[in-house]
Amino acid sequence: MARQLVLGLALLITLAVFPLFSPWSTVILTVALCEGLAALGIMVLLRAGQVSFGHGLFFSFSAYAVAFMAAARLGHEALILIPVATAASGLLAALVGLFIVRYRAIFFGMLNLAISMVFFSLLEKLFPITGGADGKRVPRPTLAGMEFGREQFELWIFYITLGLCLAAALFVARYLTSPGGKALEAIKSNETRLEYLGVSPRKVLFGAYLLSGLLAGLGGAVIALVSGHVTPELAYWVRSGEFVFIAILGGIGGVAGPFLGALMFQIIRGYAAVYAPETWHAVLGVMLLVIIFFAPAGLYGIATGSRRKEGGR
Which candidate in 110, 187, 229, 253 could, as Cys together with 310 as Cys, close a disulfide (CB 3.0–4.6 Å)? Predict the structure, then answer.
């Protein structure tokens, strides 16, 4: 526990001060935090032994919700756009979850992928509404009623995102130690025994799925503001796969894992794209294989000295 606390504080302090010395890194770090939020949602599902290859659905849905509201001037305030878009993704997660939680294992993962790809196709085909493959521009909104220049806005959004990530991580950590969180582990190990105790596995998984969709939606809402543009690529299967990659890379032993994985993912992708632009995907693949074979607990496990993947048998 002490190592986990030290790791969390070190990560928080490093992220808080880094942009002050390297302003160019603000957007990159914000994107990493947004991806970390989505990966945190994947981590919640992995605790139940389920994996979603379609969380780009919620990530992109909230991003487009921000774009539509900002364009229509229904909410030209960032502090309104973020919670409303996140709530919209939560509503979508609730609707999808009612159907998805009936399934397990590969069926769970592939159904999420299928629904996400249907949404991706709609974003590309409904050009008059969504802008098609070109996407939609997101006008820079006000922040607490004030207008900022690009650099100031990006810096403030970063610190707001950092605060949201801290709140989300603390909430998820508390949730995973609650009876509902422990029931998630029971779904993975022995779902029948959970039913004998009078607990509905579907209800437990539905709650986790709803939380997972909200986290992905929160990341999508913020990334729409910081990038100023949304495209169907946010819903593509590759983006959903990246979230799973990040969760495995960082490790699911603690809530800091997905954020460590997101930061490392951005670092690897950035350097690989510069020094190996034709093979950077292979570099990421090799990195994932190394983690799986030699550090199954991920970066979090390496940092805290845990050798076994959390929740593994």
Answer: 253
- How many other C-beta atoms are found inside a 10 Å radius of the C-beta of residue 222? 29
pTM over 0.85: yes
In whole angstroms, what is the distance from residue 68 CA to residue 66 CA?
Answer: 6
Closest among 166, 160, 200, 165 to 183, alpha carbons compared: 200
Nearest 5°: the CA angle 100, 55, 173 is 90
Q: What is the mean pLDDT of the chain?
A: 88
pLDDT score of 310 more than 70: no
Return d(Cα 76, Cα 313) in angstroms, integer: 49
CA 122/CA 271 separation, integer angstroms: 34
Q: For residue 304, what are the CA distances in angstroms to 49, 117, 171, 249, 256? A: 22, 37, 21, 14, 11
Confidence (pLDDT) at 25 = 85
Burial of 130 (0-12, 13-18, 19+ CB in 10 A): buried
